[in-house]
Amino acid sequence: MTQKTYTLPTPEEIKNVDLSWKRYLLPAIHPEGLKILGVEFLIVLVLGLISSAVWLIGLPLLIFSFYFFRNPPRVTPKGDNLIISPADGIVSNIKEVIPPAELDIGSDPLIRISVFMSVFSVHVNRAPISGTVHKLKYRPGKFVSVADKDSEDNERQEISMIADNGQKIGFIQIAGLVARRIFCPLKEGDKLTAGQVFGMIRFGSRLDVFLPKGVYPCVLPGQVSVAGETVLADMSSLTDKKG
What we know:
Blueprint: H1 11-15, H2 22-25, H3 31-50, H4 54-68, E1 82-84, E2 89-97, E3 110-117, E4 124-126, E5 131-139, E6 156-163, E7 168-175, E8 182-183, E9 191-192, E10 197-201, E11 205-210, E12 224-225, E13 231-234, H5 236-242
Antiparallel strand pairs: 1-13, 2-3, 2-12, 3-11, 4-10, 5-6, 5-9, 6-7, 7-11, 8-10
C-alpha cells in the first residue's frame, strides 16, 4: 500500500487566506452572471426613469442576481485519488444506476451521488477530478423538478473525464424546474484540475456524479456539499490494487 504523506501549508498559503468582510459581501461574479446583471441593470435603469416605483422591484432583483451568480473562492483538498463535489447544495440521493451510454464509463450499475442546488445555492460548477475531458453529450429537455427523481426528461449536459490516475469519472449537469440554461464551454480533450470552474446552471438544478466500480461514497444523503471542497469519494483503494 502506498504511504500517504502530509505537507504543511507554506507561510505564503497561510498569508493568502482571506478573512475580510469582502469575502462574504463582495464575492467574485461568474462572467456569465455579469452579462445578465448588465442587461438587468439597463432594463431597470430605463424603466426606473419612467417610474421610480420600478426600483422597488428592480433593486431586490439586482441584489438577488448578484447573490445568485456569485463565484466565491474555494480551496480544493489535495489528492490525486479524491473525487470532489462539483456543486454546492444538498446530497439528495445516493443509489446504484446504469450510467448513460454516452458517458462511455461502462454498462454496469454504478453508484450515483446526486447534489441538489436550490436557487439559494452557488450555481458555479467545478471539476470533480484532475484529468482530461473524454466525452460530452448535450440533451435538451423539459421544465421538470430535479429534487427527488431521476429526471430523464430534463435538459442535461453529460460529461466524462479520464482522471490523471487513469480512472473514468462521469458527471451530469441537469437543469431544473424554474429555468433551463446550462453553461458548459468544455471541449473533448480539455485539461481540468480538481476544483477548477468549468460551467454553471441557472436557477435550481442538480449535479450527478458516477463513482468508478469499487469506489464508495464519503458522504450521506442530507449532507451539505460545497463545490470544490467536499470530498465525495476516495479512489485510493483502486490505485493501491494497481500498485
